[in-house]
Specification:
about 425 residues, alpha+beta, OB fold (Dihydrolipoamide Acetyltransferase, E2P), Chloramphenicol Acetyltransferase, 19 strands, elongated
């Protein structure tokens, strides 16, 4: 019996996904839960598993197509299933062989044959990955495979190429040097925005998803903005005191960012209006405090989530930041790592920024930018002199449909209070 496999929902608020790579072809046999394609959403690149055991008879979407949740992806002839059609219909079907139908997706270039999806021979990869290997003159054996059951993915090849470009090493004996793709010079076509010598670089699936997500946020959300300043000299002293022992004990560095995430998480628990979202003309106030953080990978941006951040210590938050950032950059982040966020904290200070307006991570209600800590002259508490202090700006963007200046100001007041509460003997655990 032939059945359709549809686009699954790969996270809350996710309504569509873009086909990055097909891992099967028409005629391939797959087991239930074998991956059939890779899909890019605004949250993560994920493998879509087969819903059945059987043989792929049609591919109903092409690479780079954007497919809505619930829309058909492929057709499969399910093993052991009995056709419910009438005998006459079955006879008519046999008179018109299924093999005469054209697949929805074009056949891949014959640079290398993809191995059947159900075999266990290693390495396993799709025709699109085979094309990349041929293009860059790479051997699959030289590239670490992170896909399901040891499958080599497009992302594995791209990560390998990025490392080769940034840290060139001698080629293996059986491998030709890996050339950097030659940029395509653009001729003056007369269109606005193009000049002689310009270089066109096609947008990656991740960059396209970011563009769609940010456009949706700016088009739908009326952004409001507020910035306050806070003295964090106490946190600077505390971190300086603890950072050496912390790294020795935990195996990673103690940065300033966990202190800010903790202060924000505590304030969100006190201000549930900020920890909300606007969906389908309804306000949803979230009980869980799940902090989204921005992690850059090359020119791409991912937003993994620290779950229940208000219940974690400074050490616990620091460990999650380290784990999530490593997972994103290693290509091992899961769909669960990327979903469930209720508020975003963005560490813009790492770039030296002192004031910025963040675009809200749709459909959340707000985002806060933690700016760079800088030395500034401040009056002493008695007002009789001046001293140097470590100051930071906190820049908050809010959804004006849900929040106003009173809500934003009250939330920032408590974030400032939480930051001021740290002292030289504060417990990180």
């Amino acid at each position: 019996m032939k059945k359709e496999m549809t686009m699954p929902r790969l996270g809350e608020s996710v309504t569509e996904g873009t086909i990055v790579d097909w891992l099967v072809q028409v005629g391939d046999h797959v087991e239930e839960y074998d991956p059939i394609c890779e899909v890019q959403t605004v949250k993560v690149v994920a493998e879509v598993p087969s819903s059945f055991t059987g043989t792929i008879t049609k591919v109903l979407a092409a690479t780079d197509d954007t497919i809505a949740v619930g829309a058909p992806l492929a057709e499969i002839d399910v093993e052991g299933a009995v056709e419910e059609a009438a005998p006459a219909a079955a006879t008519a079907a046999s008179a018109t062989p299924e093999t005469s139908a054209e697949p929805a997706a074009p056949d891949p270039a014959p640079v290398a044959a993809a191995q059947p999806a159900a075999t266990t021979d290693a390495p396993r990869f799709s025709p699109a990955v085979a094309s990349l290997l041929a293009k860059y003159r790479l051997h699959a054996d030289d590239i670490p495979a992170t896909g399901h059951q040891g499958r080599l993915t497009r992302q594995d090849v791209e990560n390998f190429m990025a490392e080769e470009v940034s840290q060139p090493a001698p080629a293996a004996a059986h491998q030709a040097p890996s050339p950097v793709p030659t940029p395509i010079p653009v001729q003056n076509t007369g269109f606005d925005g193009q000049l002689p010598g310009d270089i066109i670089t096609p947008g990656s699936s991740v960059r396209k998803a970011i563009a769609a997500h940010m456009s949706q946020s700016k088009n739908e959300i009326p952004h409001g903005w507020m910035m306050v300043e806070q003295d964090v000299s106490n946190i600077v002293v505390l971190r300086q005191k603890e950072k050496a022992n912390f790294q020795k004990r935990e195996g990673f560095k103690l940065t300033y960012f966990p202190f800010f995430v903790k202060a924000v998480a505590q304030a969100l628990a006190k201000h549930p209006r900020i920890n909300s979202s606007w969906q389908n003309n309804m306000k949803i106030t979230h009980k869980q405090v799940n902090i989204s953080i921005a992690v850059a990978k090359g020119d791409e941006l991912f937003v993994p989530v620290i779950k229940h951040a208000d219940d974690l210590s400074i050490k616990g938050i620091a460990a999650e930041i380290n784990r999530l950032a490593s997972a994103v950059r290693n290509g091992t982040a899961t769909a669960d790592d990327m979903q469930g966020g209720t508020f975003t904290v963005n560490n813009t200070g790492s770039f030296g920024s002192v004031a910025s307006m963040g675009i809200i991570n749709y459909p959340q209600a707000a985002i806060i930018q933690i700016e760079s800590i800088r030395k500034a002259i401040q009056p002493t508490p008695d007002g009789r002199g001046f001293t140097f202090a470590d100051m930071v700006n906190l820049s908050l963007s809010v959804d004006h449909r849900l929040l106003d200046g009173v809500a934003a100001g009250g939330f920032l007041k408590d974030v400032k209070k939480n930051l001021a509460a740290y002292g030289p003997d504060s417990n990180l655990y």
